[in-house]
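Q: A reviewer asked whether we had any structural model of the full assembly, not just the individual parts. We don't, so I'm hoping you can provide one. Inputs are below.
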Amino acid sequence: EPEVTQTPSHQVTQMGQEVILRCVPISNHLYFYWYRQILGQKVEFLVSFYNNEISEKSEIFDDQFSVERPDGSNFTLKIRSTKLEDSAMYFCASSYSGGFSSTDTQYFGPGTRLTVL
Amino acid sequence: AQRVTQPEKLLSVFKGAPVELKCNYSYSGSPELFWYVQYSRQRLQLLLRHISRESIKGFTADLNKGETSFHLKKPFAQEEDSAMYYCALMDYGQNFVFGPGTRLSVLP
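A: Here is a predicted structure for the entire assembly that you could use as a starting point for your response.
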């Protein structure tokens, strides 16, 4: 069964550095998402992406964040200048129909643990 | 604003006992609700969604609009059911709003 993959599994960076988290969604999916989960807290929506542009973004997704689909397979989340509070597990997800089909859902990747020192 | 609550952070039951994981939501529209499960060191995976009204791994969940609840139930818990369970609501933008999660521990 196809799966969403994410790299790296763990990223350690210094405060103020830029990081790029990578995701390969399921190949025929059209909608892409990023979520984050700070340790001990709930999973929070960051951004959704469709047709090469952002569809929705949360308050968390400020100017420090950007997303890109640089080619036909990758979907990246960039944090321009990391802060200590960006330390979290970042999950990528993809879906075929964006929830418009009752048989579809979002499929999650295994996550990237980001540690900002 | 849409919100999902799961009042129990941790729920421990003995193997073979019934289990109920509570979920309540607040949403102004017609909600679409899901249960996701995360086994140890694995990714979030869909367990079930209310619209399909199915039973997966013996789990069922009924949407009660009057009580704004979507509790997850299983009549006889198994040790392999031990995991984090997240209730989630799909909002108008087709994005998920997750509850804080309940850790289910099934004791032998």
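A: Points you may want to mention in the reply: The CA atoms of residues 61 and 107 of chain A lie 21 Å apart. Chain A has no helices and eleven strands.
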